[in-house]
Structures are given as C-alpha cells and as structure tokens.
Amino acid sequence: MKLGMTTPRRHFLKAMSAGLAASALGACATMSARGLGRVVVVGGGYGGATAAKYLAMWSGGTVDVVLVEPSAAFVSCPLSNLVLGGSKQLADITVGYDALAKRGVTLIRDTATAVDADKRIVRLAGGAELAYDRLVLSPGVDFLWDRVPGLNNAAAQARVLHAWKAGPQTVALRQQIVAMPDGGVFAIVIPRAPYRCPPGPYERACQVAWYFKRAKPGSKVLICDGNEDVQSKKALFQKAWGDDYKGIVEYRPNCVLVDVDVATLTAKFETADDVKADVLNVIPPHRAGNIAAQAGVITANGAWCEVDFLSFESIKVKGIYVLGDSIQIAPAMPKSGHMANQHGKTAAAAILASLAGQPPNPAPVLNNTCYSFITDRDAVHVASVHQYDREKKTLVTVPGSGGLSPAMNTLEGDYAFDWAKNIWADMLT
Ligand SMILES: Cc1cc2nc3c(=O)[nH]c(=O)nc-3n(C[C@H](O)[C@H](O)[C@H](O)COP(=O)(O)OP(=O)(O)OC[C@H]3O[C@@H](n4cnc5c(N)ncnc54)[C@H](O)[C@@H]3O)c2cc1C
To answer: Fewer beta carbons under 10 A from the terminal one: N or C of the chain?
Structure first.
C-alpha cells in the first residue's frame, strides 16, 4: 500500500510547525493518512478551498486533507474591480487561511510542479513529494503569452497588466489608473470566450468609468472586445454605458488581439484598428492552470479539462478531479467563483463516496449567481441552476430557473457585498 498507516498525522503537523517543512514533506509519501486516505488539493481559490473545507468537514476527520497553495492569504477576484475604481482596498477582499487549518486541513505554502498519476504523487517546487489517494486540481487559469508576442517577456508583463488574478497586479493597475492624466484613455482588451468571468471585463469598464467621472472627467474607457458582442448582462451594461457613463465608455466588438507594442502601449488586432492607450489593460487568452497541463488532464482544445459532471473526475486520468475555471464548462455554465464553489462541494461529496467504495450522487444540482457592480454601490445579477442530465451526461440549465436584474440598484449592491462575505465564509471558515 502506498500510504503507510503507522505515523500519526500530528507528528507531521509538528514537523511542519517546527520549520522542517521540506524534510517532513519529503517523508510524506510514506507517511500515514487517516482511515479513508489522503486527498491533496492543489489551489486554495474558489474551487480548491471549498473542496478542502468540505472534505475535512464531511469526512469528520477520517480523511487526511492537504491543501497546497503558494499565497499566504486568499485574495478574491470578485470585488477586485472595485479596488480599481478606488471604492475598496485590497485588504477588503483578502481572507486568511487560518480557519481552514483549524478545521483540520493541512496547509502547505508551496506550488505543485508535477504530478505522477501512476504513482499518485504530487511534486512541489520546494522539492517535497506528496502521496495521494485522490488529487483535486483547482489552479485557476494561466495565460497563453505566446499568442501575444510583444507581451511574452517579464518586463512587458510588468508594464501592460492583466489584473485577471487578484493581488499585486490589482494594486499596480489601480496605481496606473490614478497616475493617468485627465483626458487619457484606459483601454481594456478582452479575449475570445470562453474566458474567466464573462461579465468581469464589462464590470471593470464600469468601475474605471465611475472613477473617471469623479476624478478625471475628460478621460475615456475603451472596451476592445475579442468577441462579436457583449458576453453577459448585455442590456444592463449597455444601459450603464449609454446613461451613467455616456461619453466616457466606448464599446468596440471584434477586436481580436494579435500583438501589443509595449513601447507605445498600442494593441494590434486581427482586423480592427490599432488602439493606443494611456493605460493598456490586456486580458490575454488563457487556459487551465499549468499544473493541469503538466498532469495531462487538458483534453479539450488544448485548453480545458473535461470532467465527469457527476464527480468532477477527469475523463482521462483516474483519481484526479478538476474544478473551477480549468474545466471544459457544461453548456451555459460560466467560469465563475460561485460555480467553482459548487464544483468543490460536488467533488468533495463524490470523492468521499469513492473512498468509501460508493457511487457519486446520480443527480447533482448546482447553481450560480453572478453580481456586477455598475457604480460603487449599485449592482446587477444573473442567476442560473444547472442539473445533471443522465442522457446527455452533462449539466443543463433547469428551464425557467434563471434570473436577470431588471435594472441596477443599491439593494442588489448590498446583496452582492453579502454574497461575497457569505461565499468567503463558506470556503474559508
Ligand atoms: C475581475 C474579476 C471579477 C470576477 N468577479 C466574479 C464575481 O463577481 N462572481 C463570481 O462568481 N466570479 C467572479 N470572477 C471569477 C472567479 O474569480 C473565478 O471563476 C474563480 O476564481 C475560479 O476559481 P478557481 O478555484 O478555478 O481559481 P482561483 O480562485 O483563481 O484559485 C486558483 C488558486 O490556485 C493556486 N494555484 C495555481 N497553480 C497552483 C499550483 N501549481 N500549485 C499550488 N497552487 C496553485 C493559485 O495561487 C490560486 O490561489 C471574477 C474574476 C475576475 C478576474
């Protein structure tokens, strides 16, 4: 048996806290797991943190749950556009991992670099190896820099920011926006769908416009969309751009990015005219996180991971479950934090069932609500319910279940702030 059953787990924790991380982890492959086995979760974001928490909670301590995450704290992408607008600070969207540790999740601050699916071992950048019975990958997305040659180096990436992973780039992009002279142009370049958070770029345009309206009224927000049309909440965003942000926001469809000239902050498109900006915000095309590529679970279009929607187990590599933005989505399922949270719970239940020799729930139901802030306080939402269809073997939206705001309002803004607090508590406490 790969995982020995002799060494008590508390010794492992003691070794970790004594600063013996590398050697302790090196020994991990031969260490014991609790009764039902060990689940290693890679990535402490919306999908991974949720899975880790629910695995620990629902197993009642019978499963050894290990979460590998390089960041010291969780920083939320949802609400991060409000940091760009200046109405929130990074501290407002940051939550620590301490409560997860108190739940019995072993936290390892490191990056997974390789997976040996035959031996069921994850290798970490720090040199350690972790044996697993089940592996959960929720690494979010990584960018396809080779598709934007001018940005395919570190210096260019430090100048033209994406801020599509919340954290230091969010703060740096806010600084660029604040430093921009009045009368300047902020241009945001959106990749072709599917991309992380369909309404996110349009919310960002609103938040930057909200700031410009107050601080730099002569400035413009130019949306260069790689798609032929607005991808989410179209009428609601268009109303905001035509009413609240008239004369500030301009929307241009079919702007498929081919390159960026960093020296002149110019975006070049397949057919649309070049755009020269004062602040250029490029969201590059992306795919499942690098570790998913390394683990061999990318199966769709060289970009995304197909999963069995009953369990979120990879269709290709047994014992590896993929969550969140990395998956090849079911029809009408957005790449959202809310969905990733739902994937996490569905997968946690399926993994515990499989460790106990049981089949997964044959009829999972997932839901999504996605808020977008138009001003600092007014929001809109879209909601949907996704149910497993036995014949189609995928999740389909339940007819009549969805919903869309009739108009932005402050009550929905309050709901949106509460949504964030609730989902962070659901994942991380
Ligand atoms: C500006 C913006 C606004 C958004 N707004 C909303 C919203 O309002 N509502 C909503 O539902 N969604 C929203 N989203 C989308 C949401 O952020 C993502 O869908 C969600 O984060 C996906 O969860 P995930 O677990 O796949 O990835 P993430 O939450 O990004 O988590 C991935 C984690 O994996 C870690 N990681 C990556 N590789 C490794 C590795 N090799 N080893 C160890 N750890 C690793 C990363 O450090 C990270 O912590 C927004 C996104 C953006 C960019």
So the answer is: N
